[in-house]
Amino acid sequence: MGGNITSCMFEPPREGPRRAAITGVATYAPQRVVTNADLTHTLDTSDEWIVSRTGIRERRIGAPGETTSTMGAEAVRRLMAAKGLGPDDVDLLIVATVTPDMLFPATACLIQDQVGLPRAWGFDLSAACSGFLYALTTGAQFIAAGAHRRVVVVGADLMSAIIDPTDRTTAVLFGDGAGAVLLEQAADGFGILDFHHRVDGSGRDDLLMPAGGSLKPASAETVAAREHFLRQNGRVVFKFAVSQMAWSVELLLRRNGLTAADLAVVIPHQANQRILDATADRLGLPRERMASVIGRYGNTTAATLPLALEDVLQGGRLSRGDLAVFVAVGAGFTVGATLVRWDC
Ligand code: UT7
Predict the structure, then answer these.
(1) Per-residue confidence at 10, pLDDT binned at 50, 70, 90?
(2) Distance CA 6, CA 96 (A)
(3) Ligand 1 centre and the CA of 234: distance in Å?
(4) CB of 340 within 8 A of CB of 193?
(5) Which of 39, 51, 261, 277 is least surrounded, with the fewest CB atoms within 10 Å of its CB?
């Protein structure tokens, strides 16, 4: 063993506090499209029910061999190609997911190896549908502290791995996908201006995968009871999501002296179009300023926000200097909102 390995790997802070900005985004979604009509072959459901109750028309489902790490790695490769980054340019990789390839090692390690990022360290972060925002806030602190120059934040979930294909109340809702953003120092007045998070663990039984952890290790009984699949108390989560999304955005607006009219776009977690519409209405925000890609992807958990962000950028709906808010609610419950002045 080399005697000096720790000092080789540790990088002291380079500069004083700065804001972080998202300076690039890339996504990956599996090729295979599963439409609502496809689901009616195996489930007692209908396109009419799914579209009217959720807004979802189709979702992507990973091919055999695709995993959260392979999807995340492809999103990172695309991000690096788009930004012209080389293998040594990434300092830190944070992966938000609830469907890691394995409980350990962390999916961040698997992506680091697949992409080939010799200088990057990394870790996974578990906050379900709020995971991408929690990871964004976490990554931004390393930029703000001057500890790192380039942080890659990945949101990736292969939800098809934990969805019960025989349960119509959940099987129609979720899809697979991944997204990655690059965080770098922002120009003065730009970037991530403010964030807000909260957790409310009283929601622990309303959206969960009951078994596979230390509480209920995998056994023949847990498999027979289908406890390795996601379970959701949809109505409770729906009500919580609507109230908390609007409240979180309002909190950020109020404490920054802004109103909804100041926002070019709100980029919300994509769980249900009715949640997005109700949140827009509560905020007094025209519904078309609430980003929506749920029709094409369903709920991809940690991947929804980068997928929605990429769509907003491709649609030319966010320009340098515009204000935007990201907002999410997820299992836990977890809640988050982030105010940005767009910087690229
Ligand atoms: O991403 C993390 C956060 N997750 C969320 O935010 C999800 C929040 N919840 C929701 O989006 C909605 O609650 C759901 C989409 C999950 C369900 O919509 P809902 O309007 O709350 O429906 P429901 O659960 O009240 O069910 C209404 C009826 C039930 O039948 P009965 O009891 O009235 O006879 C269900 O059995 O719809 C039935 N149903 C279905 N029917 C056809 C449930 N799923 C289906 C289905 N197809 N796929």
Answers:
(1) very low
(2) 27
(3) 6
(4) yes
(5) 261
